[in-house]
Amino acid sequence: MKTRLFPLLAILLLLLACQDQPRNSLAEQNKSALEASPLHQYFVRSYPDKPALVWAFHDVNNDGRDDLILIYRLDRERNAMRVILSTGGTYTITNDVPAPISNQTIAFKDIDDKPPMEFIVQGMKGTNMGYAVYRIENSKLVDLFSEGMAGCCG
């Protein structure tokens, strides 16, 4: 009986330990990669008082270079998102859009089977959940479709 109990306790402890990991643990592990990125450094020079919360690198304007999708804190009650585009030696920062306050995720999905790549941002504010599908058009961040974002973004 004791030999069966030990593996069960070990598994339970492992599950409890994993439960405390942040949802964006991959991004947390890659914070040094973010800070070393010229895209992020350009953003910080432009907006030094806006701390990064959640980010992802992906080519979202179909030019073969990774861009930076960045959710950052505006103040205690509001977050925003911008995309920093790598445009061949220079950088362009898109317009900002409201972003979720907590449990933010960024996922990439080619919705219409043609470039550029769309991406989905989802998250919460309190008990309000929302998501939006975005695309870059002419260096502008465009909301293609959203549901519940007004409630989770401010």
Overall description:
This protein has helices at 2-19, 25-29, 31-36, 38-46, 149-152, and strands spanning 52-58, 67-75, 78-86, 91-93, 97-99, 102-109, 118-125, 128-137, 140-147. It is α+β, with helices and mostly antiparallel strands and 154 residues long. The strands form 2 sheets. Strands 1, 2, 3, 4 and 5 form a 5-stranded antiparallel beta sheet that branches. The protein has a 4-stranded antiparallel beta sheet with strand order 6-7-8-9. Strand 7 (118-125) and strand 8 (128-137) form a beta hairpin. It starts with a helix and ends with a helix.
N-to-C span: 54 Å
The fraction of residues in strands falls at: 35-45%
Briefly note the structural class of the backbone. alpha+beta
Give the helix proportion (percent range). 25-40%
Helices, by number, come to: 5
Order of helices and strands: HHHHEEEEEEEEEH
Low confidence ranges: 8-23
Number of strands: 9
Mean pLDDT: 85
Q: What integer value in Å does the Rg equal?
A: 18 Å
Q: Largest sheet, if any?
A: 5 strands, antiparallel
Describe the global form. Answer: globular
